[in-house]
Amino acid sequence: MTDATDTAQRGPAAGSPPGDAPLLTLEALRVDFKTDDGWVTAVDGLDYTLKRSGTLGIVGESGSGKSVTNLAVMRLLPPRVSRIGGRVIFEGRDLLGRPESAMRELRGGKIAMIFQDPMTSLNPFLRIDVQLVEVLRTHAKMSKSEAEGRALAMLERVGIPGAASRFRSYPHEFSGGMRQRVMIAMMLLNHPALLIADEPTTALDVTIQAQILELLADLQREFHMAITLITHDLGVVAGMADDILVMYSGKMMEHASAEELFASPAHPYTIGLLRSIPRPDRARKGRLYSIPGRPPDLDKRPPGCPFAPRCSYVRDVCRAVFPDEVALSPTHRVACHAHEQVRADVLAGKHGDLIGGDA
Predict the structure, then answer these.
(1) Least confident of 18-22, 121-125, 188-192
(2) What is the pLDDT of residue 284?
């Protein structure tokens, strides 16, 4: 059986880029979907990098393009009704040009993904042991007994109580939090270099959410893997992400280190998300703030900045031209015509404490 220590001692695989090179780089990623009315754009010109063992939080409301971006990275979008442009560079190779056979080896091997709902991700008709062993035998080419041993050890590692006695249970015999732990165990069996966690705490109560996030952080340190954490809640990534990418209507609104984003946000949408985070440590005087309006439909995206109809800083130019990206620091960039005024207002305290603001 190979443990995390063995993995660390082996080092990078032959042909991998140097350790200081980014693990994943997206260049001008674009994703379109075919509809009855023609093609619509779900992700538009997205760029970011993810370093080895780093954590990137991707945040935005439903429909902002977070999950679609990472399904494109995994090449899991249906080819007949979708098309992907740009480049997705993983360990020095563009995944968009790789054959499907090579992608099947990567999925569940070097790149793994935890989907939103573990009950629908796990096959309800197959026992847990069968599903775990299949992952190992597909990628690691080991015997059934070896695979069962490693699978059981991983269940114990992710905190399944009485793992040996529950190894042959069905998914419905586990609680939501335990099913999510099973999914995490399954995705880590082959020691991936990149783990994509798509809303891993959705539908879990607050206590279980904290346990799952703490578990992911512990496993990241143990297996030296990078994590892309997808969520609609900035509070979820606050203590875990190194960098945060804020998306809206398929576009990058702001991308910064976690420290910079929380200390000096420069986009009105980021401020809205911050003010929407509940603060259980502070008595509330009024209703929790919510961003007015709703995101645009993909086939009815307004010209200019898609956030303009909901923005309190809107200018005439915002409605006509999407802003160029501006680098505020080596680790902070924003796409907003009013970013200077937004930052000045933040420094002047005009948005209060930012996090958990009253409406």
Answers:
(1) 18-22
(2) 67
Determine the Cα–Cα distance for residues 60 and 53; give it in Å rounded to an integer: 23
Would residue 92 be called left, alpha or beta, if left means φ above 0 and alpha means ψ between -120 and 50 degrees?
A: left
d(Cα 308, Cα 268) in Å, to the nearest integer?
10
CATH T-level topology, domain 21-244: Rossmann fold (3.40.50)
Answer whether 41's CB lies under 8 Å from 32's CB.
Answer: yes
Instruction: Return d(Cα 222, Cα 3) in angstroms, integer.
Output: 10
Determine the Cα–Cα distance for residues 110 and 6; give it in Å rounded to an integer.
16
The mean pLDDT of 334-348, rounded to a whole number, is 95
Give the CA distances from residue 235 to residues 6, 273, 353, in Å, rounded to whole numbers and listed in that order: 35, 9, 14
- pLDDT at 121 exceeding the cut of 90: no
CATH 3.40.50.300 location in the chain: 21-244
pTM: 0.89
CA pair distance 17, 30, nearest whole angstrom: 25
